[in-house]
Amino acid sequence: MAELLTDDQIDLAIRDHLPQWKVVDNELVRSIKSDTFLDGIRLVATVAQLAESMQHHPDIDIRYTTITFHVSSHEAGGITDDDLILARHIDTAAR
Length: 95
Description:
45% helix
C-alpha cells in the first residue's frame, strides 16, 4: 500500500506543481470548464484511459461543461504520490 503524504508535502506539491488543485476532505480536487459538453466528455475519456493504465482511478463528476476530478488513494485513506502523479496527468490532458 502507498504511503500517505504529510500536509506539508501536499502543500508543497500543490504550490510547486499543481496550483489549480485544492485539498478537500483528504482528496485532491480540481474542476475544469470545457468549451462544450462533448469536449468535457472527451477529457473524461482521456483521463479514464490514463487512470486505467495506472490502475488508479479518480472520482469524476460531470455537470454539463464542468468536470470535477477527486483524486485520493482510498485504500490508504488519503493522498499519496500516486495521486500527485494522476493529478499531473489530468492537468496535461486538460491542456
